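Ops channel
N.P.: pipeline sanity check, posting one input/output pair.
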């Protein structure tokens, strides 16, 4: 189980987020009434996909004894006109890799746990305590 707790701070939309022993901060951009003191929730969602993809690729490369000279993952969230969310992920992988290995990196990226969560139908259960 993973648990995150968000507590409203002293100004509108300023949030203190606790995940285990880690403390993060969030906010909304000024265009939404926040002060942009931290990432917005959707930005954290993009960061989760980018960091999970990076870690998954690095684990695979370590297992295969591959050493990239650079590994970077960019994620952009776009909402289409019909309100569908599309995560556009770009893999930047440098190193002595052939085309077959590079194609495998895409398959590995698609196997990252956060990708799997986002790609399936999800359920959110809400209760008031």
């Amino acid at each position: 189980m993973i648990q995150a707790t968000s507590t409203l701070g002293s100004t509108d939309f300023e949030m203190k987020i606790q995940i285990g022993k880690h403390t993060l901060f969030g906010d909304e951009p000024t265009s939404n009434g926040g002060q942009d003191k931290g990432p917005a929730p959707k930005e954290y969602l993009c960061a989760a996909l980018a960091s999970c993809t990076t870690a998954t690729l690095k684990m695979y490369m370590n297992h295969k004894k591959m050493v990239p000279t650079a590994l970077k993952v960019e994620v952009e969230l776009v909402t289409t006109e019909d309100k569908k969310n599309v995560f556009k992920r770009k893999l930047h992988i440098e190193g002595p890799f052939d085309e077959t290995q590079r194609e495998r990196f895409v398959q590995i990226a698609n196997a990252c746990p956060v990708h799997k969560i986002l790609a399936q139908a999800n359920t959110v259960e809400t209760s008031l305590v």
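N.P.: looks fine end to end. The longest helix spans residues 41-63.
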